[in-house]
Amino acid sequence: MRAAGCVLWRRSAAGGAPEICLVHRPKYDDWSHPKGKLKPGEDPLSGALREVEEETGHTATPGAELPTLRYLANGRPKEVRYWAAEAGPGTFVPTDEVDRIAWLPPSAARDRLTQPRDRDLVDELLAALRDV
């Protein structure tokens, strides 16, 4: 299964430090980065940005490509390509797929993420932001 997503971030209003957006999926009762399956023939970056907008309500400006995660999902191989993406304008509206989002400092985002494999992406984002 091919999927794509983003580590969505913004500068906090108080001090300008990065905040990371996590999504809560009620079906799995988990917290993760916005991501989803690619449509047939869809470019991975386009799919990642589409998923961000669908799940968070925010447009995003893509930055550095982050590591691709590979793991088994329901016994099937899954590959998720990720990008750093700065949040643009938008408004979150809860859906059946994503009922909440949270903007958190990196350390809190790392702690809130359900899957340990997603935590390394926070560090990769911070490294990418330092290189800009």
Describe this structure in words.
The protein is built from three helices and seven strands. It is of the alpha+beta class. It has one domain: Alpha-Beta Complex (Nucleoside Triphosphate Pyrophosphohydrolase). Strands 1, 2, 3, 4, 5, 6 and 7 form a seven-stranded mixed β-sheet that branches. The chain is globular and about 45 Å long.
Topology overview:
Blueprint: E1 2-11, E2 18-25, E3 30-32, E4 35-37, H1 44-56, E5 58-73, E6 76-90, E7 100-104, H2 106-112, H3 116-130
Parallel strand pairs: 1-6
Antiparallel strand pairs: 1-2, 1-4, 2-3, 2-7, 5-6
The CATH topology label is Nucleoside Triphosphate Pyrophosphohydrolase
Low-confidence stretches: none
Reported for the largest beta sheet, the result is: 7 strands, mixed
Strand content: over 45%
Alpha-beta classification: alpha+beta
- Helix-strand topology string: EEEEHEEEHH
Shape: globular
Mean pLDDT: 96
Number of beta strands: 7
Count of domains: 1
Helix count equals: 3
* CATH superfamily descriptor: Nucleoside Triphosphate Pyrophosphohydrolase
Give the CA-CA distance, first to last residue: 32 Å
The CATH class is identified as Alpha Beta
Share in helix: 25-40%
Rg: 14 Å
Please name the CATH architecture: Alpha-Beta Complex
